Amino acid sequence: MIKTLLYKLFSVSMALLVLFSTVSFTVEKHFCGDVLMDAAVFNSVEKCASESQEAPSKMDCCEDVLDVIKGQDELTVKTFQDLDFDQQLFLTAMSYSYLNLFEGLPELVIPHKNYSPPNLIFNRQILDQVFII
User: Fold this and answer.
1) Does 15 fall in a domain?
2) What local confidence, expressed as pLDDT, does residue 127 receive?
3) Model's pTM, two decimal places?
4) Which residues form a coiled coil (predicted)?
């Protein structure tokens, strides 16, 4: 139970790590003077009310800033043969010992599970006075 839960948790966290390391996005900011008026990630920023009414040449104090956060473009995949011999040996030994660590007990087969013994009329050991010591 806990092994499957840990396996699923680890798988989801690795998938999210790969997803967030490869995602790129842009943060758009609108400044009027030194004051940040609006910031947006997925949509465009709202302009100042005075900027939309007047001509853009008169508004020298307002500016838009784009911050581009680039994700990783290429993922490198290493194979087992790319590792050194010591690393291969360590990885093989660790995986072998880890897999055998959680090996469960085999199901015990009880051949006489549904067998009911015959009714005893007399006890043979006491009758013959033979005891296992």
Assistant:
1) yes
2) 86
3) 0.40
4) none
